Amino acid sequence: MAHSLSARPPSLERRYRKDRRFRLYGLLAVAVALIFFALITGGIVFRSFQVFQTKEIVLPFTLDEKTYEGFMSRGFKELFPDATEEDLQNLSTLLSLGGQKVFYQARARALKNKISQDSLFFPLSEDALRLPKNQPWVNLLLEKGLIDLRFNTRFFTEADSRNPETAGIWGGVLGSFYLMLMTLFFSFPVGIASAVYLEEFAPKNRFLELIEVNISNLAAVPSIVFGLLGLGIFINLLHLPRSSTLVGGLTLSLMTLPTIIIAARTALAAVPKTIREAAQGLGASRMQVTFHHVVPLALPGILTGTIISMARALGETAPLLMIGMMAFVVDLPRSPWDPATALPVQIFTWARNPEPGFMSSAAGGILVLLGFLVLMNLGAILLRKRFEHKW
Amino acid sequence: MSAPGFLILSALTLLGVYLGRFRVLKISKMPQNPAPSSLLKYYGIYVALWVFIPGFLVMMASFLPLFSGLSRRTFLYTMMILSLSGLVYGLRRTQPSFRAREAVERTFKLVLGTSACLAILMTLGILISLLSETVRFFTWVPFLDFLSGTTWSPQTTFGPEDSIGEFGVLPLFSGTLLITGIAMIVALPVGLFIAIYTSEYASSRTRDLIKPIVEMLAGIPTIVYGFFAIVAVAPLLHTVGQGLNIEISSESALGVGLVMGVMILPFISSFSDDALRSVPFELRENSYALGATSSETIKKVVLPAAMPGIVAGVLLAVSRAIGETMLVVMAAGLTANFTANPLKSVTTLTVQIVTLLTGDQEFNSPKTLSAFALGLSLFIITLILNMIASRVVQRYRKKYGT
Lengths: 391, 402
What we know:
heterodimer; A: three-stranded antiparallel sheet; extended
């Protein structure tokens, strides 16, 4: 059968069309993933706007005023000399309940630095600002230029509080920091030691295979099971304090131990056999070969793996919930035995809070968490790039 | 015990290092004694080990509830006595002819081996703690009722006093399966096609761009997905439902499954990508030589060849989805609904574990014990899935000699 040069038999044309469609599906799938990624990050950023700005009002502050209530009525009376008692009552509801803390903190500072007069910014309650009965006052305040939109630094420096306007992420950040330290303290030495033993010294028999299977299974166990383990052993058996960084660190280190062991073993195995043989040829003992030559060469890979495991532990909430970190913790922990909270748990508690203002606090907290994760992963990647050996 | 004990232990250890080294040096300087058989530092370390290890063990023992009756002072004194005796004993052994390096290295190897045993101890620990509580649970609720009951409603404080509630686990399994099923419907095609695109069609530059972003989806903490689900997906579904006049629960399995699908997508795509790439080129080339288009080659040659690796990826993704906690806790419901309707709210194993253990905590009630039973079931299920997956990967590697 003769075909002209420019025509293709229709069956071939069909197959080519199918081919193009298939490729299109692949591209669509990639687009779906990218779109979801953008939606998730964009959605969180969008939802967090409210928490990074606060509406605040300037009120004069003197040391003579000893109570928050007195200060409020005096401040508003100065602004609106003809306000009635009832008006003053209404006005004071505009201030966020968290303003009390701000007042007493400012008072303590003023006493210390001997400042007798000042004008301070006080946070306003979002809900009160929206109430229709308060609108005339709000408009008046806006006209006078007394309401200011400022960047909410309090979010980064304060611990949790009952009002979304004064609740901050610092308690969570500090708690997570201590948790990471404890986890590193327990899991890094044990993990490296185990990996070195399994890779360099253990006899290659069925028992070793059993341990290897064990460790890969442990690495895939859901994190909540480790939480149950922590609850069962550390809290119920050993009676360690609930919600403390000690128990949290122990539980998280049990969780990260398998991943650290696997990463360290991979790094150790990547060091070529010739290094070991050369060292032994020069008279080094097995220990000396391992610790003077192999481990230093594998160290960048080990550190990269450790950082990545820690990053994963940072975002884990379930095990911490199991060991009791659900409580509302306002004071910062001063020792590993004190109750603490952690960044992901704080986010979780805020997201569950019925008060709507806390949703944007949760979104802000998520951004802080993601920020730390990005930093850690970038650090790990930089470490790998800089010290990577191409054998 | 704590701070002063730790300081004393450290001080004694350092003393041991110094004394050991010093003593060996002095002895070997005397004319009739031989030269030390190891480097001097090893003698110091040897003595230090004899000081440190007994003291350290005493310190660890002070945490055990077995000895909680003893006062801190008792521990401190015990530690000091043991460490000092260790110091004396170690010093006595430091002769130049003593092979200190070998002794130190042997001890070190023992320490390393003990660390490795911790891994097995951990699995045993999980099994034992879960098993003991589960066994106690089954003294309250019969095993068969647990496995075959279709109602899950543990007694809350408002229920009738003498009923402990229903503990049938089937609605939880069905809820978990429903959500996991929806997640796989989303993740499997998308993940597979992403893998096909990145392994077969994309240039290496595009691949280097796409792979990190998809892997970042895997690195996002699940609480973020949970937040996204309640903030964006649930309201959206609810509005869509209103528009179509169907009742979509704000905690619907559909919403949770959708977000879960996005979450496990990277698992499937990266496993499948590795599997597809490891199929030898010859197979593709033979197919092209016989006149197949690239999509036909992929569909009929490469994909079947890579199937074991893809299956392993799917199994691991399912295992991950079943064990996922935070996403479901935030976005799924609390009441057990034995249904296959994705528009209703269901609850899963993990949600129940969290709910049961974050309320009031009387530790012997069947309510809290059931959480451990659920935990054991979860552990067993994920263990089985993982073992099948790794067996599949092993056989696959043998077939292709990777």
